[in-house]
Amino acid sequence: MYNVAIVGAGPAGIFAALEIMKLKPEWKVVLIEKGQKIEKRKCLLREGYEKCPNCKRCGLLCGWGGAGAFSDGKLTLTPDVGGHLLDYMSRDKVEDLIKYSDDLYLKFGATEEVFGTDYNTFRELEREASLAELKLVYSPVRHLGTERSLDVLKNMQDYLDERITIRNDVAARNLIVECEQVKGLILDNGEEIRAEYTIIAPGREGADWLTKEFSQNKIGMVNNAVDVGVRVELPAPVFEPITSKLYESKLIYHSPTFGDEVRTFCMNPNGEVVQENYNGIATVNGHSYAEKTTNNTNFALLVSERFTEPFKEPIQYGQHIASLANMLAGGILVQRFGDLLDGRRSTPERIKASILTPTLTCATPGDLSLVIPYRQMTSIIEMLYALDKIAPGTASRYTLLYGIEVKFYSARVKLTNELETEGVKNLFAIGDGAGVTRGLIQASASGIHAARVICGR
Ligand SMILES: Cc1cc2nc3c(=O)[nH]c(=O)nc-3n(C[C@H](O)[C@H](O)[C@H](O)COP(=O)(O)OP(=O)(O)OC[C@H]3O[C@@H](n4cnc5c(N)ncnc54)[C@H](O)[C@@H]3O)c2cc1C
Description:
Elements: E1 2-7, H1 11-23, E2 29-33, E3 74-76, H2 91-107, E4 114-115, H3 119-131, E5 135-138, E6 141-143, H4 145-161, E7 165-168, E8 172-178, E9 181-187, E10 192-200, H5 207-216, E11 221-222, E12 226-235, H6 240-243, E13 249-254, E14 261-268, E15 272-278, E16 281-287, E17 296-305, H7 314-329, E18 333-336, H8 337-341, H9 348-352, E19 364-365, H10 374-390, E20 400-408, E21 412-413, E22 427-429, H11 440-456
Parallel strand pairs: 1-2, 1-10, 2-7, 10-22, 18-19
Antiparallel strand pairs: 3-6, 4-6, 5-13, 8-9, 9-10, 11-21, 12-17, 12-20, 13-14, 14-17, 15-16, 18-20
The structure holds flavin-adenine dinucleotide (FAD).
């Protein structure tokens, strides 16, 4: 019998375990992670495979560290970005949790430097953005880079390995609920794990499982938005007016035609575009490394759609668009902005006759207008022209658009302010999988919060 069972060794699950071990070192805790230990995790695409082999458990998203392990490791140190924790507690409290989580990253080896703290450096940029009808959102960022991120997570794994039971390569299959109280879990090998408290932190990758399992136990869920868009890649100097002043900025625009919100997301100066896998569907993302650099900058342009009744399947909607791109391209599709405007597909020859070389070499040149609905496509095009006003060259015909980038924000679990489920006692849901967060630092902070509540009971 354990005191606490945790599902998922992403930042949310790891930070919950770290805090429990600080407050109750004598407690028995088990952490169940369906992927591998950090040193065994690998993504064949990153190791030179041309096409994603659709591994049963995606090495990029599953395993110690979760989706954050090979991520760029940008810790966005503000409550305004990367999650909804402000819906559950006061700003002061979220700020404290973020500071506390950030200090833990530092303790386990994060880089000291924080970018984006000097307002004077980006004041002029804010003015230019306003003139282009763009809203500039800035936040202090600690950038680990993928290599350092892996080191920090390995240090956490080593530390916890000596204190709790870590079970890798096995998934949680069912919750055990008796008399409206959670009693533990059944694993996919049939094993039963009994625990007084259970924390579910399966990330976006495990969100479908969470939704299914929670609805079977009559735990309420609320629809979240889905963000559909492309990853933009251009020569790094083109975006320097922005990236040289602000390491991580977010620019928000409301498209004149539809009034939809379009935003930049996850900017990677001198980084590379990568493919990831979501339940067998290939989608795009981006990275930048602390040491290894490219000549290109990439960022996502995402259009937010929030559906109204009776539609309840925003994730399936996003998956459908992404799988359409997969169907046409056999994976990721890439198109030059000029070809899109000219109403023709990109071809390998046209991509070659460009001023930049794509960093995601396995992407197939094609036609995004066959994939992205008119509404989102129009908003993306209008946003590129708005960005061109503050970073001339953004709307160049050579700018590359990779599709599809989708952010599936898992349906949000109905939770109390303590992040305990409404309906099943002692069951907590945290991180991206519960729809509570969207980034590393808030996912980590949600783990700390749940751990403190549990230890305080
Ligand atoms: C390529 C990429 C780059 C990113 N870059 C950044 C960035 O720079 N900054 C930032 O703030 N955020 C970034 N993110 C987002 C960030 O990684 C996530 O917000 C964060 O990892 C969420 O943490 P989590 O613990 O909720 O879930 P996850 O990190 O997704 O971890 C969930 C874990 O649960 C496991 N799991 C799922 N289901 C089960 C089950 N049934 N049984 C057992 N285990 C299960 C999974 O294998 C996984 O390891 C990036 C994401 C990606 C994919």
